[in-house]
Amino acid sequence: MRNPWLKLSVLLFIWFSLNCQLSFGADTISANQSLSGNRTVVSSGGQFVLGFFTPGNSSNYYIGIWYGYQQVSRQTPVWVANRETPVRDIYSSELKISDGNLVLFNGSQVAIWSTNISSNNSSSVVAVLEDGGNLVLRDGPNSSEPLWQSLDHPTHTWLPGGKLSLNKRTNQSQLLTSWKNSEDPAPGLYSLELDPAGTNSYIILWNRTREYWTSGAWDEQSRIFSLVPEMRLNYIYNFSFYSDENESYFTYSLYNSEIISRFIMDYSGQIKQLSWLESSQQWNLFWSQPRQQCQVYAFCGAFGSCNEGGLPFCSCLRGFHPKSEANWNLSDFSDGCERTTKLQCEEDPSLATGKTDKFLESPNVQLPQNARSMNVGSMSECESTCLVYCNCTAYAYDSGSCSIWMTELLDLQQYSGDVSNGQTIYIRLAESEFQSSSNNNGIIIGAVAGSVGLVLCLVIFAILRWRRKRMINLKVEGSLLAFGYRDLQNATKNFSEKLGGGGFGSVFKGLLPDSSIIAVKQLESISQGEKQFRSEVSTIGTVQHVNLVRLRGFCSEGTRKLLVYDYMPNGSLDVHLFQEENSKALAWKTRYQIALGTARGLTYLHEKCRDCIIHCDIKPENILLDAEFCPKVSDFGLAKLIGRDFSRVLTTMRGTRGYLAPEWISGVAVTAKADVYSYGMMLFEIVSGRRNSELHEEGKVRFFPTSVARVITEDGDVLSLLDPGLNGEAPMDELSRICKVACWCIQDDETHRPSMGQVVQILEGVLDVNVPPVPRSLHVFADNSEHIIFFTESSSSQSPRTPSYNYASSQATSNTSSTSS
């Protein structure tokens, strides 16, 4: 080799290969190897990687395990070794076998993390990264028994195959502990563990002291935790619980090994089950608890207020500011807030009573805990009692009961809208906080006075314009407009063009002076007063989603109650599904997107709003379509407007009984799962293009859901269920998926039905769905049709010839029959 440069290149290549062999997929660290710099260990199948990483914009480095980039393109750590002791220089730090342990040394060669085990033969110990994400220390490469494994020492992620156990001999629990924030894997405030009290339930603790969520006890018969009914839909996760005299633990695996899923204790204080969706390059949330962020204890820290009404969830009380702006920018609110101005009694301890401090009224809140009750006779005495103590931070007075807080205020939640159970708390502030407010008020008054002339001119101009065109003259919260009755009467040409109608009233097409087309619903049987109606409508108007019909305004003049919506040019879904034989059928792709969009709208109502909104009347007539056939759920606020009488109104409505969940008929409390049932019934009609119940010429009733259940459970021809007008043009996987989802949605027991959020993920292809059990009611209809009871309501709004179906056997129908008549 005469070329010296070529010789040097070869030598450099050989040296580089020998020193960087770990970065080319080797899954083992042996006694003569170490890990430093950018070198990594990769599991044999490329599923996981071990090496140094830095989270986010942090300058700290940690030894951790993350998903292989062929699996998950976004670096996602699942285990961290030195989470409390980061290093800065990864080239002088190294992870290696030392004295039979896997040890991390920093740049000064000080051991900062170790597996801390005893080994008889330190020279043969090896560390192997397995394809399940488990880092195992073995006494030799051929040893089957691990000396130590990372799955026994989880950090914030619980991987399939791992376990969270309770050692019954030591009463010690394995913990799943959150990161402090997105850039700091140090142990945070929130942890998940198996209850040391032996209740066979998992609990989430704040600061290892305060429990704020529990899974409920394990039910071996149904194989779920009692307060986690979602586990019944285990079409992705195979859950198992084990218990003996030594330990109890819970573990899970995946039915489909191709799915990438993880369970984490998030720094938000919620436990979350996430699945990777490669098409969108993101982790999709499958399930989380507690459901509401503000249910996490002390999430916003001291003197912070939590509000579900929008992002960010946390804000500081007036007169306070974040202790750490940097942490708040990372959504770590645990440091809480501190006073902008110290109290007078803190500045001058000789002022024993601190009378120069004042109190700020904060209404409509959930009061913090740990209050001290005081025996006083009036609100002024309650305030004076608080002023006596310099460490008294707030007081509340209600119906003769005085409560004062002698500590930092934790877990204070601010309600928005018309929440009836909100209370008022009075926050103690320095007097100067109120003085600055007075100065600001003076400036505001001057500005207002200087603008009076301009306002008068604008008013005159508005009056002249109003005379030419009767326009809307009042705005309320949420950008809603208050219409006059005559305005809407003119816009709809005296309500002459009817678009449709239902149990709540009729809908008419209208045209505003600005040429925008509207739909006006005249409400019937609405008994609320003016103030209550405006409050209810204002709340509904704040609910905005692409799959919900936008409420533009309302009219409330005496008994005249009207709602004004955006006009949907393609009408309602039923018009397109139940067409005449020669009409063009709605394409399958459009049907599927309508089903998915409707599910997204209902998910928003059930899970994303401050309060869960139950629609109560899901059916094709209430799914409207815009110009692009994007579905819009309509009438979603009417259940709230109708109030307590809604169940009576609904059960006497024409044409909705085919969508009623069994709990409506049985009279038990109705939850969001009633909407899931109705949605499932509508899915059947989207598939078939026909009503679920049809009376054939021979006098027999055809019930389409029974046909679907039979085909799905017997692995029959799914295409036979499709609308004949589509000529079999539908992907088999989508058709099978939507039929299975529909059957899950109409389960008799509401706890067996999925949530609408889960329905969305199934339809998106994020989650798989297994074959559902056939609901008992469908068994009855198919196998025992002579025992089906038909009954009618004694209501003038229901034709006596229109049947209502109560699917029950003859042995259990006497009570139902008498109740319904």
TrEMBL record:
Identify the stretch(es) annotated as Disordered: 793-821
Q: Which SMART domains match?
A: B_lectin, PAN_AP, S_TKc
Q: How is this protein situated with respect to the membrane?
A: Single-pass membrane protein
Domain Apple residue range list: 345-430
Q: Where is the Protein kinase domain?
A: 493-767
Question: Per UniProt, which keywords does this protein have?
Answer: ATP-binding, Disulfide bond, Glycoprotein, Kinase, Membrane, Nucleotide-binding, Serine/threonine-protein kinase, Signal, Transferase, Transmembrane, Transmembrane helix
Does the keyword Nucleotide-binding belong to this entry? yes
Q: Which reaction is catalysed here? A: L-threonyl-[protein] + ATP = O-phospho-L-threonyl-[protein] + ADP + H(+); L-seryl-[protein] + ATP = O-phospho-L-seryl-[protein] + ADP + H(+)
Q: Does the keyword Disulfide bond apply?
A: yes
Major location (coarse):
membrane
Domain spans labelled Bulb-type lectin: 26-150
| Feature: compositional bias, Low complexity | 809-821
Q: Name one Pfam family in it.
A: PAN_2
Binding of ATP, residues: K521
Q: Where in the cell is it found?
A: Membrane
Entry-linked InterPro entries: Bulb-type_lectin_dom (IPR001480), Bulb-type_lectin_dom_sf (IPR036426), Kinase-like_dom_sf (IPR011009), Pan_app (IPR003609), Prot_kinase_dom (IPR000719), Protein_kinase_ATP_BS (IPR017441), S_locus_glycoprot_dom (IPR000858), Ser/Thr_kinase_AS (IPR008271)
Per the similarity annotation, which family is this? Belongs to the protein kinase superfamily. Ser/Thr protein kinase family.
Protein's recorded name: Receptor-like serine/threonine-protein kinase
